[in-house]
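Show me any protein, keeping tokens residue-aligned.
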Amino acid sequence: IINTKNKLRSRVATQNFAGREISEGSWDGWTALCLQRGVHSNVGTTEISDVELVVDGAACNIEALEPELFLKAREAFGIHPTEYRAVLGADQAMQKTSLRYLGSEDAAGKSHSFFMFTSDMRYVLKSCEEYDVEQLVELLPSYVEHVREHPDTLLPRFFGLYKIESARSGCITVVVQANIFAGFRPIVEKYDLKGAMFDRRTPEEKTVQEGSGAVLKDMDWLIKGRTLSFTVKEDQACFLDLLRSDLAWLTSQGRMDYSLLVGFAREENPHGHLTVLSRHVVRVLRLRYSPPEQPFELAYVGLVDILMKFNFKKRCEGVICHAFGVDVCALPPDRYACRMLDFVTKNSHERVDDAWVQRKIKRGLRSDSIRVLARTFFVQGTVGLFAISAAALVVK
């Protein structure tokens, strides 16, 4: 495991770049430039929470939410204000944003969030709905304490939360965090792991269309026989200890439905120093990889999407799916954490128990069959209701 405070600097592989360049004069370009100028103006050892700006003749207000707590979080990760401003900010002389844009329609998740990336891919900015903002602000004091105690945490590295208000863009809130996949080596496979089997397989047509950019899931992981088997046993113990401490904290905060992102990359020199993008990469691991023809591999890993609480909606979802014997994601926080830890632990050995894998795959296939039947029943039922309603209108 590479210390995240390593001072090594390397360029991110071109294959790991995400998003597109933002055209000058566009709505997203104007919004990004407002944010960058706001960050340049208010970041320092003492943060300014509110900045009024005029960009391209239009007024906007940039508000930094909980600036002092985010300053403490950045300090815990070794991010100096000058460095943060240099990477994310933009002075008045810059007329075009340096950020890259990824729309919600192109992102892997199910949310309606859009994403922006800094030009060097270190930071990713994600738009937030009101619920996400409330939950992040609620978590923040405890989060800061946890990352100060565990600076090598696998949790998302939150650096800032900004609200942009203007007549042109309305009100938008974005969170700034570290980009897990900002690796020096090209990432050839990406996985989003929850430990669940229900609806946890990426459609084949999507993997063909997107290639190495496709985000695979738990079923794909098991079918392909992937593992997190470490070259050094001490690294395995350290990684699992970090994961346990983070999952225990998430459980204490009532959180569930988060994922462990894993990005596999090939290392040209398996006996040399790991080439990483310094502390801005959440974690990079050297693995004893399977299959045997690729014995030396790297994995970039980190937890994401940690804001969801086990609320009434999730409780109902879990009860209904459990009645059908479906291995669904909606579990109480303690059971959710145990399932994820069990999945990762069993997959961190050189040889994973085949019987366990086959049971999980079988359960996943059964869950998929139930999902298809339920969807078919819903569609047919909806069509039937429309037909009955139309017939009733005709008779009337």
